[in-house]
Request: fold
Amino acid sequence: MSIEEDDRQLRHECGVFGCIASDPWPTDVDVAQIISLGLLALQHRGQESAGIAMSEGDNHTHFNVKKGMGLVSNIFNDEATKNLKGNLGIGHTRYSTSAGSEEVNCQPFVVHSAHGALAVAHNGELFNAGRLRRMVLARGVGLSTHSDSELITQALCLNPPDIEIDGPDWPARIRHFMELTKLSYSIVIMEKDRIFGVRDPYGNRPLCIGKLMSLAEPNKEEGWVVSSESCGFLSMGAQYVRDVYPGEIVEFTKEGFHTVSVMGRPHNRPQAFCIFEYVYFARPDSIYEGQMVYSVRLRSGIVLARESYVEADIVSSVPESGTAAAHGFSMKSNIPFAEVLYKNRYVGRTFIQPNARLRRLGVAKKFGAIVENVAGKRLILIDDSIVRGTTMGPIIKLLRDAGAKEVHIRVASPPLKFTCNMGINIPTKAELIANKLTIEQLAKHIGADTLAYLSVEGLKEAVTEKMPNNNAVEVGHCTACLTGEYPEELTF
Reply:
């Protein structure tokens, strides 16, 4: 994440993860440890709280659950994971958008229905949450939180299909929920002995599948994982298999996984995968839509150099968010890349500071300038995005104080102008600097010699150029925060 992450508080709502061991049960695989590693890899998607729910697979009334506020490593130490016994489980790490940062909102949510226990972990934000809430309340159910995720859990329990024989038909209940709301969610759902991975029909939020391989016998499969991102797979001995398709319900059992059904989009609308996952949220080593995020960011820098070249001596970046794009800019422009900022990794996150002055002081503490690479040089500094625009100014001043002759800012994404409403905590339109100042005014405001953004079309090109099946009719990305064009009309 860049220096801008702190002042802009551009946060993803959460990350979800699930793991199920292969037959035979009880398993020798430490499923709780795998889930803990998965959540640790997804820590960038949420740092307020985390939780794990585990099932032995033979009891439909009881799950082993641990949840708490804070970082994954603080909640799930060795002792905690040893106490989480089970053959399958799901986990969650959270930022809040639709509900407050309180322990009552920690996930996974677990409910005890007439048919047994059900655990749900959700990433996203429901477009029509108000309508669903009124529907659930009208059925006489009290909700203990304002979380969309609890709403999903109750909606699944309250809406059985017309005929259920020999127990609940959870796939039918999931399909019914998906008919009620098309945006925005990736969900992992656990009942007694199986896990469901669910992605909304637009594919707005990410979800992927991995195969857990034996460390002793390399070709032996030991289970399956489902995750918001693939970035943690290698660290736990898993292989990326594929994304969960938009609208797909995938069922995981000890025998393996299969597609239950795929729900289409209304009026044959295109997919709407969040394009800002590529720009900002995802770890660069994650795979989306058959391509690595790092490669997309590299291509963004290449396109940016083509669109907004300026003569300079050095191309550099705000660590680490702009680094891949800066390398791409350097490749295209033939201007050498060099580091000009050193990041102090022992300074706490500056967004907790209570006012702008202290945030600015936090920025000064967080970075130092590499004077030998700066003094007397014309610099191009690449960052992934600018939101409020309050921290780039101090960075530029730091570089000028170190002797920079010129500082040209290049941003590897278009200007943010609109709120999200689909699980990203973007400030109000009034707070977004792109709605206050022109590009020329903003350059003067932050003290840059020039400023340029990547165009919307340039970003789309970088994302789709090397994507497998990039010419398919259904390929599409949500650019609502950049263009104001939402996949569906917001309802309340």
Q: What stands out?
A: The radius of gyration is 23 Å. Residues 1-9, 349-354 have pLDDT under 50 and may be disordered.
